[in-house]
What does this fold into?
Amino acid sequence: MTLSIRKCPVTMLAAFACAAMLHAAASAAPAGPADYPTRPIRLVVPWTAAGTTDLVARSVAERLGARLGQPVVVENRPGATGLIGTQQVAQAAPDGYTLLLMSATVHTVSPNLKKSFPLDPIDDFTPISQVVSFPYVMVVPANSPYHSVADVAEAARKAPGKVSYGSFGLSSSPFLISELFALSTDTKLLHVPYKGAAPAIQDLLGGYISFFIDSLPSPLGQIRGGQLRALSVTTPQRAPILPQVPTMAETIPGFEAIAWIGIGAPANLPAPIADRLNRELQAIAAEPAYAQKLRDMGLEAVSNKSPAEFRSWLQAQKQYWGDFVQKADIPLSE
It folds into this structure.
């Protein structure tokens, strides 16, 4: 009897301790999909601040945070042509609190231009939603003798290797699209690499290169100001902000190159969280003020795909550029 009396307090203390531990563990456990989100979310932008991708990220983050009831904080993690920030997200926990600003450069173009790529640009992520789409545009100086895509192609045929274009190097979209133009018109062009859009446009204005193809927001100011002449856009439809500029496909049937920005997360994000984020991004894309703000920058608000449809679209885009790289026999970089 005495022995059992001595055990009783110990047993009760152990029970209380066990209950306290279980309560603490439950309090510390991460919230499930039904409770998401319960704390701030970070949106990693693998590019420098103030560029097109950064401006889109901040506009989306502000509205997404308001709809979710938690701040969405933009973190710029530039470097290695978008790979540094992208790899950080790939290694993060798939809990919905780390998101990534995805782009054509990293996820569908560059992987086809390198001998090896440090990650799977699609399967290492949970694609959530495309948020914007925009064309690339072929521009020439206002005093250029070229007034159409056909003029450029004709000049290149008459003087192979003399008509020049600028790009950001062999892994860049301007290079790939310019070479697609060369292949599609059976011409040979002179490639001149630059470290960015600003020096390329400066040399274009100075007459040192013949034309430049870049995403529309980059040269839009000079187009509006009359310093540059836009010859064509690369999307299947004309750009609403430049309705007078024909598409490349109007001269070269089937020519297409779409720039895009989307939102993703680490692989294995729970489907309820991905679906919730997708719904909110679709609602944001439908906001007239938001859509007009993007259109003024040369961008179109887009969110018409489910996460599964966005993944399939990314795979098709990556395959499209991979097939072209092989067909054009473009050398791969390290």
